[in-house]
Every structure is written in structure tokens, then in C-alpha cells.
Amino acid sequence: MVKPKRNVSFSNEFFKVYLSDFSSRQLSLPPAFGIQFNGKNEALPKNATLKDGNAKIWQVGLVKREGDWVIKDGWKEFACYHSLVDGDFLIFKYDGSSEFEVELYGNDGLKNNGLKKEGRGLENKLSIHVKEELETEEDFIGSRPSTGCKQKDSNIEPRITRSQGLFGKSGPKSSETKIAKLGECKGAKAPSSVPREVPRFVMNITKITRFARIPKKFLRENNIELPKEIKLRDESGKLWPVQTSLWDSGYTVLTSGFSEFCRMNKLVPRDQCVFTFICSKGNLCNVIQVQVVRRGPRT
């Protein structure tokens, strides 16, 4: 039987940035990719395969949750076998039937041919230590590289506390709150083959989304410099220009363009944005990769 021709605008390729807090057990496909199958007779299959760069085939299951497609059954094994760590870059190419070809790139920029690399994931060597402390300046989560595989507390979901990152013109004063820093490792020393940590933090979406404040402590600890204009890169690869501003309070704030980013990406309260900072030499950051975790109710 001949399959009906797709719209010329159909895209069968997409990319994902691996973040262990959200991708170790399942992987959400970009909404822009999944929406291409809405209302069509030819939907994504429940059973599919992933083919890595070494032509190894992995059986996985696809499910639809709250309007988004998710790779669930079989994904954890795929991620563990390839020792994926935070910041790894994955390019998927869908054959239109049931197979996804997957190209893997480490956060050092080098292509992974699909073979497991000893030491990348630090399997059975490191445990995740969750540390609570009082924070009076800001309320955020910063995470370090982790494979999400065979770790002591791998079943603990990140605890997102009340975020002060999105607010109105004046902005509320942050109160003393507890934060959880995930991924602080204790135990064996990381081998030299493990890439340096990828700076990132998680922000809760609230009803007011005009501005987004970047925690001072986060920028200071990671020695990140931001120009007056940066670009937010969504999961479809689209770049959104956003202005940055240094307020009298000392906070760096994403201003013009941020509310448009939220609106066009259909963010609602209780959703979360994972901001991964793509820094060049000298820690200058011109692009922030944004991965959306859709947890808010959809109408």
C-alpha cells in the first residue's frame, strides 16, 4: 500500500539535549515534531526502534501523555548503554514508519559512534547526594553531569521549590527557602575523560511571565558572562532573541522577548524550563538551550 504524501513542511528530524533529571527514564519528543501527527490517520507507532551510529537496534515504546509523545520502554537501557551524560546532544531522524536513527554527540562536541565509552558514565562509582541548605538570595536548582543510570538515588525526582524567577515589574523579594542541589557526587574521583559540568538551572513557570531572573549565585559560581542580547534556542532549534538587563538589585534579568518565547511555546503555570548555558571560551554565553517540561494542565 502506498503511503499518502506528507505536507512539504513536514520535518522528520529533531534534536534533544540529554538532561538526566528529566531524560534518564524516558525522553519527551519536541512538541513541534509530535504535533505533525495530530489528527492524522498515520500516527506514531506504539512500538518503534532506535538505531545508533554502530547500527545497533533498540526496541522502544512510544506513548502520548498530556498531548506530548514520549519514548518510554527501552529508553533507559539505551541511555545507560551509551553512558549519556548531561549536555550530550542527540539528533533523531524518523524514517516515517517505525525507526529513528540516532546520532550522538558528547558535550565536548565529538561524535559518539554508538559504542559504550568506559568511564563516561562513572557507573557503579558515584552516587547522587542530595544536599539541602538555606538560601536567601534566590531559589533554583543547579545540576551536575549524571548518567541517570545505576545510581543510588536515581529514583528521586528533582524537587523544584517555589521559584522567584518569573515575576512582574517590581518583582517580589525572595524569602528564605530550601533548595535541593542534585548531582553533587561523592566517592571516586572523576576520570579525565568526563567533560566539565554544563551550567544549567530549572525555573518554574507561574501566572506572570513577563521577565525571568537568572540567579546571581548561579552566574557567580559558574563564572558566566552574558551580553546585552542573547538567544534562547527551543527544542525545535528555533532561536529567539532576548534582551538581558542588569537591575539595580544586582540581578541579571531576561526582559524583552522572553514573554514572547513563553507565549509561542505555549507555556502554562506549573511547566518548567531547563536553561542550559552554551558557553564559549572565556565563559561568554550567547545561546541558552531551553528544554520545556510540561507539567501544567492543558485545556
TrEMBL record:
Keyword Cell membrane: no
GO molecular function: DNA binding
Superkingdom, natural source: Eukaryota
GO cellular component: nucleus
Main location: nucleus
Domain TF-B3: 12-108, 197-296
Alphabetic keyword roster: DNA-binding, Nucleus, Transcription, Transcription regulation
Name used for this protein in its record: TF-B3 domain-containing protein
Source organism of this protein record: Populus trichocarpa
